[in-house]
Amino acid sequence: MSKLSTDLGTIRTVHPRENLYVTGNLGSLNAEIITFCDGCASVMLDMRGTFSGTFEVAGTVDGTNWVPIPVRGINIAAVGYVASITGTAAGVWIGGCLGYRQVRVRCTAYTSGSATAFLSVSNAPDTAPQNFTTTTIVTSVGAGGAAVTLTLSAPGAGLRQYLTYLSINRFATALLTAAAAPVTVTTTNLPGSLAFSFPAEAAAQGSLFPWREDLAFPLAASAQNTNVTIVAPATTNVIWRVTAGYFIAP
User: Fold this and answer.
1) d(Cα 159, Cα 224) in Å, to the nearest integer?
2) Domains of the chain by start residue, with CATH
């Protein structure tokens, strides 16, 4: 037997606690569809038709202020969460709406066409299979004696980067001489201003010093929607290569 609950609207409609649906056409700037979602944990959006624009899924607690809800594609080529849906790609998207009073999808930038949007909310949670999975790998390599900065770009509102591994290689282009202090690789937007010390020993030309950390529990960026950088300093007779694997999530 279905469980019943009352929504927060003025009419106080009684709903069975099953999926709730709303549909409409999004064919102009600020066109939107909205549904109540109290008691629900996940929201799913199905976009069809020929269209070009940007669409944002958002939730509200007080009925006035709206917060973007990151969503991830179910049957599209892109992997991972996005802050908004941009372009012409039809498909199905899912996100979490636990605790919100209402959810909506709105056209925030319009180019052409019309999207037929189907929005549903459910008390089933969004179980994200991308979590703990490396979906993006970036790498940066420098010239001899040059500094190298690897940047993980800001992922969008409500999202942050989660590092799954980090690799830093130091290659000697000529004989390295020993020094009294280690070489320090620094970072930004990682907890504790994370830094790494590399040896400053004598090393033969052509030698490679590799360092790699596979993170059993992904390391979350400190701030949402902010670049993460790993910076290897200019070091005489050294070529740096920095590589990072990560995924994007709320």
Assistant:
1) 5
2) 4-122 (2.60.120), 136-249 (2.60.120)
Cβ atoms of 176 and 237 within 8 Å: the answer is yes
Report how far residue 49's alpha carbon sits from residue 26's, in angstroms, rounded to the nearest whole number.
10
Give burial (CB, 10 Å; 0-12/13-18/19+) of 212. exposed
What distance, in Å, lies between the first and last C-alpha atoms of the chain? 35
User: Residue 75 and residue 98: Cα distance in Å, rounded?
Assistant: 23
User: pLDDT tens across 9-45, in order?
Assistant: 565 565 556 788 999 999 999 999 999 988 889 999 9
Do residues 92 and 73 make contact, with C-beta atoms less than 8 angstroms apart? yes
Write the pLDDT tens digit of every residue in 214-247. Answer: 998 999 999 999 999 999 999 999 999 999 999 9
Q: How far apart are CA 36 and CA 249, in angstroms?
A: 24
User: Considering only CA atoms, which of 151, 157, 147, 156 is closest in space to residue 139?
Assistant: 151
The C-alpha angle 197, 199, 205, rounded to 5 degrees, equals: 135
- 45 is written with which tokens? 């959006």
